[in-house]
Design brief:
homodimer; 3-stranded antiparallel sheet; 5 helices
Chain lengths: 102, 102
């Protein structure tokens, strides 16, 4: 089984989080997940090539922004709210309040 | 005179701000400027090659994170706190509170 890297709480770097959020697709995924907290990966950007979506999900996961749960053939993705709120208080609240449309 | 691009308030994009903050050097510059609000560019990363520093200052300026004032041969750099606080409330506060050392 391929190991899926997810940084531990203390290993989440602010620069990696900002890099993950610096892409419009990834930022939109995160902001959607902040509204609808538990989503099947298959429903996010369903019309995008699978390899492109997988890349974005990987960047989000490896930065520590999201956690991915594998359930058979299905992947669910959630924001690591507790980890991010304790490591970088206010970042997620600022994202929730950002005025740019989804 | 060369035009120095700085986005207007409404043109500041969240993804561009996050890109500017995704580099350790630029993130450190911003966090230093949040403490010491008005700084000569020459004193920031003084031992770094000038071309590299200029690149980082340009990314910060063009993203809308900073404003640069040219006074003769001297450049001063400040965070656009009012613009960022109104466009993306809480982002700067979250940066001030982030627990990673400068």
């Amino acid at each position: 089984m391929r190991t899926r890297f997810e940084p531990h709480h203390d290993e989440i770097r602010l620069t990696a989080v900002f890099h993950a959020l610096s892409d419009p697709v990834r930022l939109n995924i995160v902001r959607k997940l902040l509204v609808d907290t538990d989503v099947s990966c298959a429903t996010l950007y369903a019309d995008m090539p699978k390899s492109t979506r997988s890349y974005h999900f990987r960047v989000l996961r490896e930065s520590g922004v999201t956690r991915t749960f594998v359930e058979g053939a299905h992947h669910r993705i959630v924001i690591r709210c507790d980890d991010l709120d304790s490591r970088f208080p206010g970042i997620l609240d600022a994202l929730r309040r950002a005025s740019e449309p989804l």
